[in-house]
Amino acid sequence: MQINWEGVMPAITTKFTSDDQLDLEMFEVNVKAQMDAGVSALILGGTLGEASTLSFEEKKTLIIETVRIVEGKIPVIINIAEQTTKGAIEAAQVAKECGAKGLMMLPPMRYKANSYETVTYFRAVANSTELPIMIYNNPIDYGIEVTLDMLEELLDCDNIQAVKESTRDISNITRIKSRFGDRLKVFTGVDTLGLESVFMGADGWVAGLVCAFPAETVAIYKLAKAGRAEEAIAIYRWFLPLLELDINPQLVQNIKLAEVATKIGTENVRAPRLPLQGNERERVLKIIKEGVATRPVLPEYKSL
């Protein structure tokens, strides 16, 4: 399966039971809700997936289960966030063996690599696999910026095909498109810039609140791409208070609370994360409650 780098791709959450085991039953409920809404791929193993807390066997189980659930209808993409080049190459190999069809790659974790080291890291992994790759550029959260010059050095790797743009500088979408055209597909990775990014030419949206509100997220994207801007903006204005829950250190807890409200998830997180408490919990629940109570009636969007 070739990946068509466009559309909404959820950074899917990992579901846990109350006794801290993988909740594969609720995980399947959520995956099927995403597919029914019309997402174009699923991304496992990101921050929202609490990948840093998962064992090697749990990661393999999630890949295999997701591949089983989707039945080849949409690609499964694995996020790689490793401390070593060797570890990243091994993770890419395991992803392919388990049935994944693509990779999303962060720069090396913990060690703040310089530009030369970062490019060498990406190139080594790309040359080790046939899987198509989306580079994840998020210097705010991970401390390393993948500049346009660095991206240009990587274009000799044919399987580096897309970039997830999370610098919060929306003009970077224009810079990438102006310099590389369609050689690199561009995804926004910031929920609160989702619609704006699509209007500026982003090919897709790696989304967070889609985990709780899949139909609304896909509808915004498809309406915008179809030129129905006013309809997209109206839904997006309703959505923005919820989308802001993604730009928060407790984004996992926030989004899982929203999944509970829409009945496609549970609140369970893995320690050291803990469920929200006190005033912050009440604040987030109020936003979610208001969002659910005013949830818009969507136009038919799937055929757009």
TrEMBL record:
<dbReference type="GO" id="GO:0008747">
    <property type="term" value="F:N-acetylneuraminate lyase activity"/>
</dbReference>
<keyword id="KW-0456">Lyase</keyword>
<protein>
    <submittedName>
        <fullName>Dihydrodipicolinate synthase family protein</fullName>
        <ecNumber>4.1.3.3</ecNumber>
        <ecNumber>4.2.1.41</ecNumber>
        <ecNumber>4.3.3.7</ecNumber>
    </submittedName>
</protein>
<comment type="similarity">
    <text>Belongs to the DapA family.</text>
</comment>
<dbReference type="InterPro" id="IPR002220">
    <property type="entry name" value="DapA-like"/>
</dbReference>
<dbReference type="GO" id="GO:0047448">
    <property type="term" value="F:5-dehydro-4-deoxyglucarate dehydratase activity"/>
</dbReference>
<dbReference type="InterPro" id="IPR013785">
    <property type="entry name" value="Aldolase_TIM"/>
</dbReference>
<dbReference type="GO" id="GO:0008840">
    <property type="term" value="F:4-hydroxy-tetrahydrodipicolinate synthase activity"/>
</dbReference>
<dbReference type="Pfam" id="PF00701">
    <property type="entry name" value="DHDPS"/>
</dbReference>
